[in-house]
Design a protein that fits this description.
It is built from 9 helices and 21 strands. With 370 residues, it is an alpha/beta fold. Strands 10, 11, 12, 13, 15, 18 and 20 form a 7-stranded mixed beta sheet that branches. It has a 6-stranded parallel beta sheet with strand order 2-1-3-4-5-8, sandwiched between helices. Strands 17-16-19-14-21 form a 5-stranded antiparallel beta sheet, with no helix packed on it. Strand 6, helix 6 and strand 7 form a beta-alpha-beta unit. Helix 2 packs across helix 4 and helix 6 packs parallel to helix 8.
């Protein structure tokens, strides 16, 4: 069982690291944060097999607190290690601002240097991560992350203040940070390198970030969502959703109803089509049209139905009986007029996917009886 000490355990990176380690076998987590004493720190350092030093100060009221929360705390940690003749591996999260000529940068650099000296004296492995602009769930808004602040403000209908839309920022996602730092837990050999950065980063302007967040917010009205399956957009969308107020997790959709049943659009995407749900009363037939280019997929999730096809220049009618007893997707080929009839005794529920958003000016839908 490897005992892992995490300082700053209640912070943004600390919480995400704990979440990861909770899913890791043969690990015991020791935590240290602002409410703990120096005696608690010494007790846990003596027990630890590896130390993640994540604690630090970003925005104190007094400049001297930069040094108390950054370099002085590292000094206490190193003093305890040396006092007890330990050479425990230490990973510290520093900042890309460590080379800046300000109190924050100077305090971070001083902490780095203390750990370098500790490594030289004891041959202990030390890993110094100068982190870029980290974003993700559980980051405190209105503190030191523009993404956290803007996600919180957007989710709570607070206007964003964008002073420089063209400013290019290097971002790194919290999951990528955790992926990188936990890799050092299994390294037994002496580390030659001391300085590290997270290699997977994203460059976006502040204007691009603000526009994406506006699209995320408007999705509930327009039902149109930008591409959020990969990369920065995936990470930002997941982050944005984590800042939704608890009473605003859900939103209503517009239902179009008539004597036949109902139709509801669920989601539109920029490049992957749209999703909808249709209900039909017993005996009701919908469709009797064909498409030249648009393609659709049908899935009956409640009830029974028959989907019929006819090639528009042919006479043969092809039938596909479907029901919720056997979930199967039916492709709607182009050039085939088609319909679907509820053949059951209860309302039939159909999930539809189309490869494109519905365009009233060019619907690519032409009436023709099957």
């Amino acid at each position: 069982m490897k005992k892992i000490l995490i300082t700053g355990s209640n912070g943004f990176i600390g919480k995400n690291l704990i979440e990861r380690l909770n899913r890791t076998e043969n690990v015991e987590i020791l935590t240290f944060d602002i409410e703990n004493s120096i005696n608690d720190l010494e007790r846990d350092i003596k027990a630890a097999d590896f130390i993640f030093h994540l604690a630090g100060i970003n925005r104190p009221e007094n400049p001297e607190d930069f040094y108390k929360g950054n370099s002085d705390l590292v000094g206490n940690l190193v003093a305890i290690l040396e006092k007890n003749k330990l050479n425990t591996p230490v990973l510290i999260t520093s900042s890309i601002h460590a080379d800046k000529d300000n109190d924050y940068g100077k305090s971070k650099l001083a902490g780095e240097n203390l750990l370098k000296e500790y490594s030289e004296k004891t041959s202990a492995n030390v890993y110094i991560y100068r982190l870029q602009n980290v974003f993700g769930k559980w980051c405190k808004p209105n503190y030191n992350s523009v993404v956290a602040t803007w996600c919180y403000n957007t989710a709570n209908n607070i206007e964003l203040v964008v002073n420089s839309r063209d400013a290019m920022i290097e971002f790194v996602y919290i999951d990528d940070v955790i992926d990188s730092i936990v890799n050092h837990l299994d390294l037994e050999k002496k580390s030659v390198e001391l300085n590290y950065t997270v290699s997977k980063t994203y460059y976006r302007t502040l204007g691009e970030v603000a526009d994406l967040l506006e699209h995320f917010k408007n999705n509930r009205k327009t039902l149109t969502l930008p591409s959020v399956g990969v990369g920065f957009e995936r990470a930002l969308y997941g982050t944005y959703l984590s800042y939704l107020p608890q009473h605003k997790f859900s939103y209503e959709l517009t239902e179009h109803s008539d004597a036949r049943g109902s139709f509801v659009e669920i989601l539109r995407t920029r490049d992957s089509g749209q999703f909808s749900i249709s209900t039909s009363k017993p005996g009701v037939t919908r469709g009797n049209h064909y498409h030249n280019t648009k393609n659709e997929k049908f899935l009956v999730i409640k009830g029974e139905a028959t989907i019929r096809f006819r090639q528009i220049f042919g006479d043969e009618v092809i039938e596909y009986p479907v029901s919720d007893k056997k979930l199967e997707v039916v492709d709607i080929p182009t050039g085939y007029t088609h319909n679907i009839t509820n053949t059951g005794l209860e309302d039939m529920v159909l999930v539809l996917w189309a490869n494109e958003q519905f365009d009233q000016l060019n619907p690519d839908t032409y009436y023709l009886e099957v």
